[in-house]
Amino acid sequence: MENLGLFDLYNKSNESRDNMFINKIDSSLKVVTDYDKTECNFEWLDIMEETIRYIDNILRNPNRFIINEEDIVKVELARRVTVESIKHLARNTNLIQDIDKKTGDVKPSKILNINKEESYETYENRFIYSLIQNMRSYVARKKRNLILSSSEKDDKKMEYNATTKVGQEKVSITMSIGSSKVVEDKHEDLDGNGIAERIEKLENRITDLTSNQTYQIIHKKHLSLVTSPIKKTNLILKNTNFQYALRLWDYMQTHMDDDITNVKDNKDYFDNGELRNYLDESFLLDYLVMDILSRDKKEDVDKTEVTERLVGNIVQKLIDINEGGISEEQLKNLVSKQYEVIKYKTVVNDREIYKIFKKHMDKYLSRIYEVKI
After folding, report:
1. In the predicted model, is pLDDT for residue 128 greater than 90?
2. How far is C-alpha 248 from the chain's CA centre?
3. Cβ count near 10 (within 10 Å)
4. Most buried of 13, 180, 237, 295 (most Cβ within 10 A)?
5. Which residues are registered as beta bridge partners of 73?
6. For residue 57, what are the contacts with CB-CB under 8 A and spacing of at least 6?
7. Nearest by Cα to 245 from 232, 263, 259
8. Residues with Cβ within 8 Å of residue 330, at least 6 apart in sequence
9. Backbone Cα Rg of the chain
10. Which tens digit of pLDDT belongs to each residue from 86-115?
């Protein structure tokens, strides 16, 4: 929009008339705005959705160790005799009941029994169990004050009234302009699920975690939950699954607020500054457009424009012909001299035309007179 016709219309208008128009404007501008923006941060949901598969990996391959449970029992109750049982008996001869002198066989009354069991009571497992518990409570708290989307509303309205006078012509305008913008961000995932659907899906996945065998074993043990700061064990620091779990833990610890911001800005006032000045100038442009309807003025403008172009072309050709240039005084004298010559020719031509016209009219009338006689 580099060459707007409206600009040409303004450039060709009469400057003194435009100044008179602007100086006599009596205008008012009422401005009403209504701005309301609610922004929700669902970063926590993004992180949980990303991390939950790593937590599932940990539960499927839990950290565990072997516990040796030692107990001295009667020989007939011993499940199996191990090397550790023989060594223990050698150190505790009081447990020997009898020794066969011929064969040298030892008959103990009691013996050490060792049961080996896997234990899930590691710090890392307690950490994951505690993380899942925190996730459940965190999601529940977020849902209590849940806003499903971020939104932005921006409404604007201007009412402009003005009158002015150009000579004896009175001009008035009444204008109303408004705009409305509503933007909503539902924070949908790649499948098009909104916040409510995403949270429901996340809760179902957390429930699946609590059904895992490892989780159930730890849950039945009623182990104490871990608290911050988390111990940086080698497994937590170096294992990728635990690294994601630790990032989620730290995020929940530092983002306990609802992360909802609301900004409102409503205005209702009469503007007497830059906005009103712009519309005053726009009023002038509107008037120039309407003024095209005046035929007499349009013809005058057209004649003036043609005259100016012709004079400009002639002056330009005079300058081009005279290589040394032509002074303003020379131009004035030349124009004055030619004006007198052309004016005299015009008068002479008018007289000659009158004489010829009169002569022929007289002949015509005389012939008509003769015919009638």
Report:
1. yes
2. 27
3. 15
4. 13
5. 111
6. 241
7. 232
8. none
9. 52
10. 777 677 777 676 676 777 677 777 777 666
Is the separation of the CB atoms in 125 and 214 below 8 Å? yes
Q: Which two tokens stand for residue 239?
A: 């294992």
Cα–Cα distances in angstroms (integers) from residue 248 to residues 47, 226, 243, 335, in the given order? 7, 15, 9, 91
The edge-to-edge listing of strands for the beta sheet with 26-40 is 169-185, 150-166, 26-40, 260-270
The mean predicted confidence, pLDDT, of the chain is 80
pLDDT at 210: 94
- 8 Å CB contact between 349 and 357: no
Angle at 218 between CA 214 and CA 222, to 5 degrees: 165
Helix axes 295-321, 328-372, angle to 10 degrees: 120
CB 134 within 8 A of CB 252: yes
DSSP-H helix ranges across 145-233: 195-210, 213-221
pLDDT digits (tens, 9 = 90+) for 338-355: 767 666 665 555 566 666
Q: pLDDT: is 360 or 32 the higher one?
A: 32
β-strands 169-185, 26-40 pairing:
unpaired
Domain ranges of the chain: 5-61+122-267, 65-118
pLDDT at 6 over 50: yes
Structure tokens at 328: 């303003």
Task: With H, G, I as helix, E, B as strand and everything else as coil, classify residue 328.
Answer: helix
Closest alpha carbon to 325 in 333, 315, 339? 315
50 backbone dihedrals φ, ψ, rounded to 5°: -75, -35
Q: What is the pLDDT of residues 228-254, one digit of tens each?
A: 999 999 999 999 999 999 999 999 999
Q: Is the pTM of this model over 0.70?
A: no
Question: What's the gap between Cα 191 and its chain centre?
Answer: 21
Q: Which residues pair with 110 in a beta bridge?
A: 74
DSSP 92: -
Q: Supply 284's token pair.
A: 């002038």
How far is it, in rounded angstroms, from Cα 243 to Cα 234? 11
